[in-house]
Amino acid sequence: MRKTFGLSAMFVLAVALLSSCTSQKNLIYLQGSEDMNGDILHTYSGDEKNYSPEYVLAEQDMLYIQITSTVGNEANALFNNNTNSNYVNTDNAVFLNSFVIDKEGEIGLPLIGKVYVKGLTVEQAEKKIKEKAEEFVQGAVVSCKMVNYKVSVLGEVTRPGTYTFYQPSVSVFDVIAAAGDLTYYGNRHRVKVVRKTSKEDLIYTLDLSEASILQDKKFYLQPGDLVYVEPNKNTKALTTLNVPLNTITSSLSILTSVISVVSLILTLSNK
Q1: Of 130, 132, 131, whose CA–CA distance to 142 is shortest?
Q2: What is the pLDDT of residue 99?
Q3: 142-199 pLDDT tens trace
Q4: SS3 label, residue 144
Q5: In whole angstroms, how far apart are CA 209 and each of 83, 182, 189?
Q6: Within 10 Å of residue 65's Cβ, how many Cβ atoms?
């Protein structure tokens, strides 16, 4: 009888472990048709483009702009809000020295006045502002940076939160990397991106396990996007692998004790 209970316990434990295991395939990013070297190649042809777009400026975007001159310091007082320093090293200072694109797609700069920048990349906006500034001062040097490229990430990631980026384009993998990657429980097949625009709310789902995602425009994010990583129903049950060893040992000890007691009771009852 004791042997029967022992085998039953082993069977239950084995079933629990096997049922909680997840195929390694479900944890791998960027899967696809690989060649003999294990490489995945996608060649762009015709009108198809290699998507790695620079973000174009939109209403309510914030630009940090500094205008100086190579022939003197007078431009600092003429153009800049902060006349004490050409450098800003805190988030609050960056915010206070930034310019918001209004509903007309313009920013209002000291002395220069209104400059239409909506629909331009940051680099294009910087060039346009430089052309305007050179009408007032020789040797104008313009530094233009976008300061509100923030993306939030929630769900099954190591470090949920809001992250700021200072690059011209941000992908889903950039945000996931900043958040410390998906947890073991993250569903790599269902990562949602929530995007609010002036006309509509968009929610679309990405499959990070597919290499073809790199050719999808939705792979690249916009300021204010929210990335949500759904939990994986299969891996969510796999708690035994993350349970401390002492907890597992204690559970097995309790199970063994229960089996011994039941076996003893049945043995005495049969006498």
Answers
A1: 130
A2: 92
A3: 989 888 889 999 999 999 999 999 888 899 999 999 999 999 889 999 999 999 877 7
A4: strand
A5: 51, 12, 6
A6: 24
φ, ψ of residue 94 in degrees (nearest 5): -60, -45
Length of the chain: 271
Maximum CA pair distance of the chain? 108
Amino acid at 40: I
Confidence at 123, pLDDT banded by 50, 70, 90: very high
Question: Please, are residues 244 and 23 in contact by the beta-carbon 8 Å criterion?
Answer: no
Q: By CB neighbour count within 10 A (0-12 exposed, 13-18 middle, 19+ buried), where does 126 fall?
A: middle
Rounded-to-integer distance, Cα 40 and Cα 211, Å: 8
Question: What CA–CA distance (Å, rounded) separates 169 from 161?
Answer: 19
Contact in structure between 210 and 29 (CB atoms under 8 Å): no
Element (H, E) at 4: helix 2-20
Least confident of 46-55, 110-119, 148-157, 183-192: 46-55
